[in-house]
Design a protein that fits this description.
Length: 296
């Protein structure tokens, strides 16, 4: 457990430290240090930091592997599916780029409403949180972010169980490097990283911006996740899971290609940023008091 925490040490050398994530956000997403990070923004920063461990900095990868001795630093593929669309062929290509499947951590940033959570999304969301491959959810209330570990019930009456990790205490591993004198951590240091109690709130009280996480160690696990997730998204009346709010998530083998219209002038539509551009946009847009995204 201490080895996993070392990946998040308060040092620029740690792969997923606050310093590393804000650097990735500034250089790759255009989010300045100190600006707002919503769920989509932090997911994009995590993906960039994960890729850096394997590709951009061999020295960083070696340090992470030596400290962690777990696959998350060098072997797990962190894939972010933006705009509520999971392209299965893209995921499979990323996880099996060298012919051998690497464990997948799938992050799904979603916005389930405008200024508040749209209640019809509660049923499919509660079902997704119950899947065996679910690794939790990032979200919360305006200006407050939590980690959600599970859910009880289904639909609008369902309650989500969460931890609030925001406890001020001395930083760990601040001696100037990941491999400093304070590593490995003592039992007391590890214990200080645990939350004291589990809390709960109704799903309908959530801020509409959130991010789901799923861990699929094998190719068969990912295939089973896709089957189970599609089943979870089916509404009781046979709809797409939104109950009037549209499909919560779209899982498809290939991206939708726009139809060519050579004899018609294309209709101009308002620009809708997607992917990393949307992650940067949400950072620059100050949240309203009632409709703010949860902190990342």
């Amino acid at each position: 457990e201490g080895a996993v925490l070392a990946l998040f040490a308060d040092s620029f050398s740690a792969p997923f430290s606050l310093q590393r994530l804000t650097a990735e956000g500034e250089s790759g997403l255009g989010i300045a240090v100190g600006e707002w990070y919503g769920p989509a923004g932090i997911c994009a920063a995590l993906a960039r930091a994960s890729a850096a461990v394997r590709a951009r900095s061999p020295k960083l990868a070696a340090a992470a592997i030596a400290l962690s001795r777990v696959p998350v630093a060098s072997e797990v593929v962190l894939h972010v599916a933006m705009d509520g669309v999971v392209i299965t062929t893209e995921v499979e290509a990323a996880c099996a780029s060298d012919g051998e499947w690497r464990p997948l951590l799938l992050l799904l940033p979603l916005r389930l409403g405008l200024s508040s959570f749209h209640p019809p999304y509660a049923r499919p969301l509660s079902r997704l949180l119950k899947l065996r491959y679910c690794a939790g959810m990032l979200g919360g209330r305006p200006r407050r972010s939590f980690f959600f570990a599970g859910v009880h019930g289904e639909g609008e009456t369902a309650s989500a169980f969460y931890y609030d990790p925001h406890t001020a205490q001395p930083a760990l591993g601040t001696d100037g490097g990941v491999a400093g004198a304070r590593w490995p951590l003592s039992a007391a240091d590890v214990a200080s990283c645990h939350c004291a109690g589990l809390r709960k709130m109704r799903l309908t009280e959530l801020d509409p911006s959130l991010a789901l996480a799923f861990l699929c160690p094998t190719r068969a696990d990912f295939a089973k996740w896709a089957v189970d997730a599609r089943a979870a998204l089916q509404h009781d009346d046979g709809g797409g899971g939104g109950g009037g709010g549209g499909a919560l998530l779209d899982i498809r083998p290939l991206p939708i290609r726009p139809h060519s219209r050579p004899h018609r002038k294309p209709h101009r539509r308002p620009h809708r940023p997607s992917g990393e551009a949307r992650a940067a946009d949400e950072a620059r847009t100050p949240p309203s008091p009632r409709g703010a995204e949860a902190d990342g």
